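User: My advisor asked me to double-check a structure prediction for Oxidoreductase, molybdopterin-binding domain-containing protein before group meeting. I don't want to rely on an old file, so could you generate it fresh from this sequence?
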Amino acid sequence: MPDNHDKSLSTSAHTNERDAFIRLSSTGFQIRHPPPPHELSSFITPDTQLFQTIHMGAAVVELSKYILVMDGLVPKPLILTLPELQQLPQTSITAFHECYGSPLTPPTKALWRIGNVQWTGVRLSHLLERAGYTPSSSAQFVWSEGLDSGVFASVMADRYQKDLPIAKALQPETLVAYAMNGQPLTKERGGPVRLVVPGFFGTNSTKWLCRISVQRERAPGPYTTRFYNEIDPEDPEGRRMRPVWNVEVNSVITRPRPAEVVKGSRVRVEGWAWGDSAVGRIEVSYDEGRTWDETEAQERVEYSWQRFEAEIELPPGDCMLLARATSLTGQQQPLENRRNHAHRVNFSVVAD
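Assistant: Sure, here is a fresh prediction for Oxidoreductase, molybdopterin-binding domain-containing protein from the sequence you gave:
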């Protein structure tokens, strides 16, 4: 789109991005759980099987009034309407999408709120370039704001606000998205426009996106200061805190199914593995980790989850399988007591 389609940011426009908000369709925290892992059989997860997490309520947006503002430490602040955004160079990214889980409880329970979808939109780096951004020591974070507001865990917020390190914002996979799996984003998915940050937990992909701002420091809202920070598991003293950004290596078994009766001693194991860093090795154990059978994950497509398959020999009787993944950077799934601990499936083997 020609440069003259971009509007300069005027004083009167500085707050009117919120004029597109009509109401919350329903208020308060809402969640739709995904199906159990063994039902996640397709490479692309349909909308009906993808989890939904809404903190304060889903925003109903007046499309004719919708604008996206980009400001902060950029020399040419921008305002874009939805049609103008959709005329910019389009990119599609296939990526896993994972919910971190509740920020109110310790991250020790595995939830497997996971799916794999295709997002379509404009690279955030392209918008930063149009706003004249150039690397500098002062610009360290990109803030994002949504049109939703309300109460979560007894904390009032006038907007959902998150931040990203500038380095992640500039990566080609980070999108300002307006479609998922080839369809316009619904209200429940954060439409008309949301941020998408492949490799980072879903909490960072701000829904009902209305403002992007380049800043020196982390965003001051409760979703960065009070919620979604955790003790770094690599800190031996257990004191250092870190933001909930990068997704740790994880995997699920999809075959055999829980309580399935498998005929014959050769048992086929299938599943998905994922993480911010691509997965290289999958290990499967039937004896609580005393011995392991190893296989390789299929090559990652963009930021997608990766399929794995293996065949193992098992004696007749009740069995329990567990799988753990290791990333190409050497990060390995823990066996217990973490939100990404190894997935276990109980089933039975009978003679053929």
